[in-house]
Design a protein that fits this description.
The chain has 308 residues and is of the alpha+beta class. It folds into two domains: 114 residues, Probable inorganic polyphosphate/atp-NAD kinase, domain 1 (Rossmann fold, 3-Layer(aba) Sandwich), CATH 3.40.50; 175 residues, Tumour Suppressor Smad4. It has nine helices and 15 strands. The chain has a 15-stranded mixed β-sheet that branches. Helix 6 packs across helix 8. The protein is globular and about 55 Å long.
Amino acid sequence: MKLLFIINDKAGNGVAKRKWRKMESELSMPYKAIFTNYPCHATEIVKQQAREDQQPLLVIAIGGDGTIHEVIQGAIEFPHIIVGAVAAGSGNDFGRGFENFKTVKEVEQFFQQPITKAKMDIGILETADDKKYFMNSAGFGFDAVISKHVNHSKVKKNLNKIGLGKLSYIYYLIKTLFTFNRFTLSLIHNNQEQIFRHVWFVVASNQPYYGGGMKISPNSIPNDGQFELTIVNDVSRLKLLLLFTTVFFGQHTKIKAVKQFTASDFKIIMDGDIIAHTDGEYAGASKKDQPIHFRVKSSAWRLARKSS
C-alpha cells in the first residue's frame, strides 16, 4: 500500500499548514504529498492518482470538511482507494462523525497492522439538472443561507486568526434570523405526501454533526444504508434561536417544531428558490416546484480504521 497526503494549506487559517509541517518532520516512511491550489483540485488529484496506479492507496486529507469532501468525491469510483483525514479546518464536523488520524504514530501504525477499513455511505442530492454528493449533510433553507454567508465572510477570516472562527456562525445565525423568508415544503416518503408550512430548513444527515459541532441528527450512522431528514417549521424567530442552543447537545429532537424521518430515499418539493448546501458549502438553489431527491449510495467509499 502507498501513502498520499493531500494538503489544503489555507484551511483553518493556516492550521492545516502547521499540522502538515509537524507531521512532515516526524514521518519515517515513504509518502507523496500534494497541495491543493483551487476548488475541486483534491478531487482531481485523487482521480488522477487512482487511474495511474491500481495498487491500494491510502489518501489522507489535511484540511477542513471541504477538502475531505473533495477527496471522498474522488475516491467513490475506486475501490482501491482508502480515505483518511486529519481535521484542520474551522468546523471539522467530519472529525466528529468519522474516525480520523491525529498523529504520525497513528498513520504509521495503520501500515504496521493488518489493514482495516470500513465501507461508508455517501448521500446524493439530485435534481433534474444536477447531482451532488455529501458525506455529512445536505439541505435547504435557513442554515444554508448562514453557511453561504459564513464561507464568504471577512468576519470568519478575522475570527480564525484568534481561534474563534466558530463565532462567525453565531453572528450570521442572528443576522439571518431577522431576514429569512420561510417556505412551504412537500415531503414524499413511503408513498405518502406530507405538507409542512412555515419551514425554516430541511437537512438530510449521514452522521450526527454539522455547522461546526451542532448535533443536528443524534441517531445518524454513516454506514447503515439510511439517513435522517430533519425539518424545522412552525416556530417563531425567538424560539428558533433558543432551539439552536439545544442542538449542540442533541436535545432539540424533543421539541415539537422538529420532525425527523429515517429512510434511504426522500423527495421534496418547495414553493420557492431556496438556497442549498452540501457539507456546509453553497450548492446553488432549488427552483420553485422542482422535485428534489435525497438518496443514499451504500458502501460508496472506504474509510481507514486506526489500530486499536
